[in-house]
UniProtKB/TrEMBL annotation, chain A:
UniProt name for this protein: Eukaryotic translation initiation factor 3 subunit I
Subunit structure, as described in the record: Component of the eukaryotic translation initiation factor 3 (eIF-3) complex.
Any one GO CC term of the record: eukaryotic 48S preinitiation complex
GO terms, biological process: formation of cytoplasmic translation initiation complex
Record-linked InterPro entries: eIF3i, WD40/YVTN_repeat-like_dom_sf, WD40_repeat_CS, WD40_repeat_dom_sf, WD40_rpt
GO MF, any single term: translation initiation factor activity
Similarity-based family: Belongs to the WD repeat STRAP family.
Start and stop residues of the WD repeats: 6-47, 48-89, 187-228, 284-314
Gene name for this UniProt entry: TIF34
Gene3D superfamilies linked to this entry: YVTN repeat-like/Quinoprotein amine dehydrogenase
Locations listed in the record: Cytoplasm
Pfam families xrefs: EIF3I
From TrEMBL, chain B:
Pfam families: eIF2A, RRM_1
Stored SUPFAM superfamilies: DPP6 N-terminal domain-like, RNA-binding domain, RBD
CDD domains found in the cross-reference section: RRM_eIF3B (cd12278)
UniProt name for this protein: Eukaryotic translation initiation factor 3 subunit B
Function: Component of the eukaryotic translation initiation factor 3 (eIF-3) complex, which is involved in protein synthesis and, together with other initiation factors, stimulates binding of mRNA and methionyl-tRNAi to the 40S ribosome. RNA-binding component of the eukaryotic translation initiation factor 3 (eIF-3) complex, which is involved in protein synthesis of a specialized repertoire of mRNAs and, together with other initiation factors, stimulates binding of mRNA and methionyl-tRNAi to the 40S ribosome. The eIF-3 complex specifically targets and initiates translation of a subset of mRNAs involved in cell proliferation.
Protein family membership: Belongs to the eIF-3 subunit B family.
Single GO MF annotation: translation initiation factor binding
Keywords (A to Z) from UniProt: Cytoplasm, Initiation factor, Protein biosynthesis, RNA-binding
GO biological process: formation of cytoplasmic translation initiation complex
UniProt gene name: PRT1
Top-level taxon in the UniProt lineage: Eukaryota
Gene Ontology, cellular component aspect: eukaryotic 43S preinitiation complex; eukaryotic 48S preinitiation complex; eukaryotic translation initiation factor 3 complex
Length: 341, 719
């Protein structure tokens, strides 16, 4: 099937996200406007206007009622999904690089930048869902970048909203108790900036991508590396696919190096790896700039990629995608099937 | 009671202790004889001639510095044949000895200059014992068998892979991951690593010099100390190593503890080019860099060139060619260089030459070719020159020459000279090819005139065919859009064999090519035509003796066929393995910034293996010495090829299946591990708060949107 192109942003995309049902796609870019689209036909439903700078991050709650954006204008805004109304603005000291709802929709998380003497922090707030325009601006938790750590680049909630896992600039990942903020553990996962963190469906493990040209899967409980995927270009995003045991990686030659190389060498493709065997199994071409974010449909039927080129491409998976299996998997399934009978 | 300050006048001068000042300003008395030279070999002349002689000698010796004093002892009214000279400083002494020692005063007299101290040290009896003391030989150190890699049962080739700071040696396993010979070494070299021409030794570059490695495990064999060495080269039989460093050799001072073990004598002071004997690890000869090369940005390399059997080595100076005999302690042949005005370049024949006139048992001749450009009334010239007879065997005269390149065929049967000539207006350049046929009577020369400029010329190894890449000269056109032609040449077959002189004809042209590189397989027949550099690299594999369809041209013994081609953007090098079975192409970070790595092809251009390696620098095949098999042996192998190949196929199959098995087992293990991990998570559902995802769409509301679009509305009145 032909991919759907979402042409609406004027500058490079920073994040794309599906809602829980997968019928809507939320996108943010450096052009200060957040957009929401129908994933089925690529029609734009509306925009969220109000930010004064690049919007770095967006998240939508599980009921598709509210959505949250974090921007370089030193603020984080809560919006009503259905009307596009800005409900509340959380002002911050520095730009907000990452935002996320916890799995129960009643807490939010923000990662703020380390500039101008501010240490860079992970901040959580309680969300008042009953009267959304009245929010408590005192954070529940403020985890400043600890001594001996580089600044935090990405963060997210684990299962039950129990932990917060953060990726750092130097490739370290750290884990905190989401209620007390205590550091539980850390591990050096990569050699370069952690560019993205995305959790599995049940949030028990997560995938991180790095500028060191690789991505890896870690177990939330013991921060042990489960898998590692080697690529040939800096990776900006990584996602885990439901249904099939795959992961999707996106990235590409740094924008500043692109002019020195030919188009076919930019590596602006989405790469599919087998999650268990760590082999690359396919690539999808299309973007003509690095891929900045990849999101997979919650039911595993399509994926969306946002590129430096300003486009979002939504690809629906075809039959061959579902049919692809390694011989080992086929035998294992057959064996399990025989066991059941 | 008060203490009175002593008045200065009260102190007597004798009471003052001046010893500190005396020590500080003491003038050391020069009692050494460092500034004195003994000049031997002066004429023995009557007393009356002394003033004249003094004048002559002083004038001569003043070249090295001001002569402070000059003394010529007399006995029985005659000079004694030597004199004493005092210079202003020791530097003058060094200079004088360097410049004037051995200087011929006239036919009969040769001057010998010696330091006074040396005379005292050696000449005065008692200082040096006359008894010969046997130097102690260091115990013999056994090395591994240096050719062990040739004993590989599967006859595989080795190569080195250089990435970042790590170099590893591997066996070629075709499409499988290469098998390490040794553990890859971090920091094995600080620059590059190179094999000697027959593959016995590997050499690594370091700021302090060169290290030599060999044997089964690449053990360290020798060290060659040459600080900041930049360039290295080898003699064809790998007996000698040549190194060049921008830093001149500096002798440690005479009394320095390092002086005794320093491998260079005073004659090497200031030299930058060293020839080493690889087996002993000692320098064989050193040379100063010619002054005209001191300031060049890009050094011409190699600076010295070897005859095919290491017997002679030659280097070019302005207007001269110096040939040295390695067997005679690297001494200059006939003690003087060969004067060749304006010589630009020379090349040794890569094999011994057998002339039509030479007899059955005559030794093979050492021949070199050189060329000189046009100057004044002289035409440009290419000449063949025999060593050691110094006989010019054949010359040709050329005019309107802008450049010449000398290409010897590897068996030295032919010399091709690519002559780039310019038109009278000097605006366009075209090439001529001049062929010297060394095996024929009186060395006939044949000429092929081309319209285009040849940018690459390659002889087929072991053959008499060649391939050129030519670039049409289109006046005014943008040179980057001008496509090249690849032309294949072979000798014409003529019925009348006796009278026929060999004539080459072009039997195939590939037009409109962007290729710039030609690489023949080491044993001929197969050719890789490639474009190297830039993002549009490619390789094409050709067979020159394709035995399928009939040849297009019946006049030549050749049939060119494209076997395969592959695109390889960013490719920086391509190289055949020494057996001619595989081709490695790679992209090195030295010249290309991204997507580094290598690809391995078989001779037919089938891609066997591709690996992307971050920071990949170099792929180095280990060369092989010439085969020891006789012609008969080879014939036997060829005859039983079918049997052998069946065996090899079997080995390959076994190798394939074993690695496939390993892969399946590995995958099975990974899958089991993952399933166990998920099962563990599922068993603790409560703890993880996993809510079963309901897959029935009960709570999902399907909204169907029906859009109607009115395309056209027409009203018709029905009566």
């Amino acid at each position: 099937m032909r991919p759907i192109m979402l042409k609406g942003h004027e500058r490079s995309l920073t994040q794309v996200k599906y809602n829980k049902e997968g019928d809507l796609i939320f996108t943010v870019a450096k052009d200060k406007i957040a957009s929401v689209w129908y994933s089925y036909n690529g029609e734009r439903v509306g925009t969220y206007n109000g930010h004064q700078g690049t919007i770095w991050s967006i998240d939508v709650d599980s009921k598709s009622e509210f959505c949250l954006t974090g921007s370089a204008d030193f603020s984080m805004k809560l919006w009503e999904v259905s009307t596009g109304r800005c409900l509340f603005t959380f002002d911050q000291d520095t730009s907000v690089r990452r935002v996320e709802f916890d799995p129960y929709d009643n807490r939010i998380l923000a990662v703020t930048d380390k500039v101008m003497g501010f240490p860079g922090s992970i901040i959580t707030y309680k969300i008042n869902r009953d009267s959304p325009t009245q929010q408590d601006t005192t954070p529940l938790l403020k985890i400043d970048t600890k001594e001996g750590f580089e600044k935090v680049s990405v963060a997210g909630f684990s299962y039950l909203g129990k932990y917060i896992v953060a990726g750092h600039q130097d490739g370290t990942i750290s884990k905190y108790d989401a209620t007390t903020g205590a550091l539980i553990g850390s591990v050096k996962a990569h050699e370069g900036l952690i560019t993205d963190i995305q959790f599995s469906e049940d949030k028990t493990y997560f995938i991180i991508s790095s500028k060191d040209k690789s991505a890896s899967i870690y177990d939330v409980d013991n921060l042990k590396q489960l898998k590692r995927f080697e690529a040939d270009a800096p990776m900006n995003s990584a996602a885990i696919t439901p249904v099939k045991e795959f992961v999707v990686l996106g990235g590409g030659q740094e924008a500043r190096d692109v002019t020195t190389t030919a188009a076919n060498q930019g590596k602006f493709e989405a790469r599919f790896y087998h999650k268990i065997f760590e082999d690359e199994i396919g690539r999808v071409k299309g973007h003509f700039g690095p891929l900045n974010y990849i999101a997979v449909h919650p039911s595993g039927s399509s994926y969306a990629s946002g590129g430096e080129d300003g486009y979002v491409r939504v690809h629906t998976f075809e039959k061959s995608y579902y049919d692809f299996k390694y011989d080992v998997e086929v035998t294992a399934e057959a064996k399990a099937h025989a066991g059941e009978q | 009671m008060t203490l009175e300050e002593p008045k200065i006048e009260d102190i007597s001068v004798d009471d003052i202790d001046f010893s500190d000042l005396e020590e500080k300003y003491a003038v050391p008395e020069d009692t050494t004889f460092e500034r004195f030279v003994v000049v031997d070999g002066c004429p023995v002349a009557p007393e009356a001639k002394v003033p004249v002689l003094t004048k002559v000698l002083t004038k001569l010796l003043s070249q090295a510095g001001t002569v402070v004093s000059f003394h010529m002892p007399l006995a029985d009214g005659k000079t004694k044949g030597f004199c004493f000279v005092e210079y202003e400083s020791q530097q003058n002494v060094d200079k004088a000895i360097k410049a004037l020692n051995g200087k011929k005063l006239d036919v009969k007299h040769r001057l010998f200059l010696n330091r006074w101290n040396d005379v005292e040290k050696y000449a005065i009896s008692g200082n040096i014992t006359d008894e010969f003391v046997e130097p102690t030989l260091p115990p013999f150190q056994e090395t591994d068998y240096l050719k062990s890699w040739l004993q590989d049962e599967a006859g595989r080739d080795q190569f080195l892979l250089h990435k970042n700071d790590t170099v590893g040696a591997f066996w070629n396993k075709k499409k499988h991951a290469p098998e390490p010979v040794i553990e890859p070494r971090v920091g094995w070299t600080d620059g590059f690593i190179k094999f000697s021409p027959k593959g016995q030794y590997a050499f690594s570059i370091h700021p302090q010099g060169i290290q030599c490695w060999g044997g089964k495990d690449f053990k360290n064999l020798k060290r060659f100390s040459h600080p900041k060495v930049r360039l290295i080269d080898f003699s064809p039989s790998e007996r000698y190593l040549v190194t060049l460093s921008p830093d001149p050799i500096v002798l440690p001072p005479e009394d320095h503890p390092k002086r005794a073990s320093f491998p260079f004598g005073p004659e090497s002071e200031g030299h930058k080019l060293i020839i080493w004997d690889i087996a002993t690890g000692l320098p064989a000869r050193t040379f100063a860099l010619p002054p005209h090369l001191e300031k060049v940005k890009e050094m011409v390399w190699p600076l010295i060139k070897w005859s095919y059997d290491d017997k002679y080595v030659a280097r070019m100076g302005p207007n001269a060619l110096a040939i040295y005999d390695t067997a005679d302690n690297f001494s200059l042949l006939d003690k003087k260089p060969v004067k060749i005005d304006d010589i630009v370049d020379f090349e040794w024949a890569p094999a011994g030459v057998k002339f039509a006139s030479s007899k059955q048992n005559d030794p093979l001749a050492h021949v070199l070719a050189y060329w000189t450009p046009e100057s004044g009334n002289q035409t440009a010239r290419v000449a063949l020159f025999e060593v050691p007879t110094k006989k010019v065997l054949r010359t040709i005269n050329l005019f309107q020459v802008s450049d010449c390149k000398l290409h010897w065929q590897d068996k030295a049967e032919y010399l091709a000279v690519k002559v780039d000539r310019h038109t009278k207006s000097k605006k366009t350049i075209f090439s001529n090819l001049e062929f010297f046929k060394l095996n024929e009577k009186e060395i006939p020369v044949e000429k092929i005139e081309l319209k285009d400029r040849v940018i690459n010329f390659q002889w087929e190894p072991n053959g008499d065919r060649f391939v050129v890449i030519s670039k049409p000269e289109v006046v005014g056109a943008n040179q980057t859009f001008v496509k090249n032609n690849v032309e294949f040449y072979a000798p014409e077959i003529t019925k009348d064999k006796a009278s026929a002189l060999k004539k080459w004809i072009c039997f195939k042209t590939l037009a409109d090519q962007t290729s710039n590189t030609l690489k023949f397989a080491p044993k001929g027949r197969f050719l890789v035509v490639a474009r190297i550099g830039g993002s549009k690299g490619f390789l094409e594999f050709y067979d020159l003796d394709y035995n399928g369809e009939k040849s297009e041209n019946e006049n030549v013994a050749a049939n060119v066929r494209l076997l395969a081609s592959d695109e390889y953007g960013g490719m920086t090098d391509v190289e055949w393995d020494p057996s001619g079975r595989f081709v490695a192409a790679w992209s090195s970070i030295w010249t290309h910034k991204i997507e580094n790595g290598y690809r391995l092809f078989n001779f037919a251009g089938e891609l066997l293996r591709e690996e992307l390696v971050d920071g990949f620098k170099d792929f180095i095949w280990r060369p092989r010495p010439a085969s020891l098999l006789t012609g008969g042996d080879k014939k036997k192998v060829r005859k039983n090829l079918r049997e052998y190949s069946a065996q090899f196929d079997e080995t390959d199959l076994m190798e394939d299946s074993s690695s496939a098995r390993e892969l399946i087992l590995k995958r099975r293990r990974l899958l089991e591990e993952w399933t166990a991990f998920r099962a563990n998570v599922a068993a603790h559902k409560e703890q993880y708060g996993i809510v079963e995802v309901s897959h029935d769409n009960e709570d999902l509301e399907v909204i169907e949107e029906i859009k109607e679009e009115v395309l056209k509305e027409t009203e018709e009145i029905v009566e």
